[in-house]
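#structure-requests
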Amino acid sequence: MLGFLSAPLGAAYHIVFVLAELLAPLAGGLATAAAIVVFTIAVRLLLVPLSYHAFRSQAGLVEFQAKVQEVRKRYAKRPERLQQELAGLYRQHGGGLLAGFLPLLIQLPIFSVMYRLFLSKTVAGKPNGLLTRNLLTTPLGSHWLSGAGPVSAHGLIFLALFALMAVVAFIAVRVAREAMPAPADQPGAIAAISKLLPYLTLVIAAFVPLAAGIYLLTTTAWTVAERAVMRRLSPVTSGNVPGARAPAR
């Protein structure tokens, strides 16, 4: 484990345990799973300002790509002028776009800590007690493809988790398509990959502990809802993007 993550990982570990104790009178056997959900939401709430800046950067990228497409179309038969115009665009907007992705980079260590908290077998040199807790008799440290088996009673818990993740992924694809429609000349393979990418969490969840799957479901659902809200508050209109298709209904 990376040494610089040990301290925040230990702190997060104790916070989740405290939340589980507080939720136990209300949630009973669901307390630890509920604590994972509450902890994930609390951290994502703290990261909202960074997420908003990252969203604005994405909006700027959409506008920048639209300008690039317009310049390429306008000067397609004048290569030298095309290069000059593109160079001017990159000088004008390139630095701001790169700086706008700083919020995403800042969030990466935080997400790494949260993911490892629900994945690692040990924390601070001791067994990860979170993975010994249960969700409806299913250990949070169990895996779908091991233990009692994928078609057992424990396996049904995982299947329910996968079903929820599939719904979230489907919504994520629609939200992304409406926010940034694919250009008309985009290769079919790239378009297909962009549609399948959100479903990658299902593949990951099939190989990680149940606790990590609950975290992935919660943080992915939060991301989808957060982007939908931010888009309404600061909409990115796609109608003016050259070569863009209107989203299918």
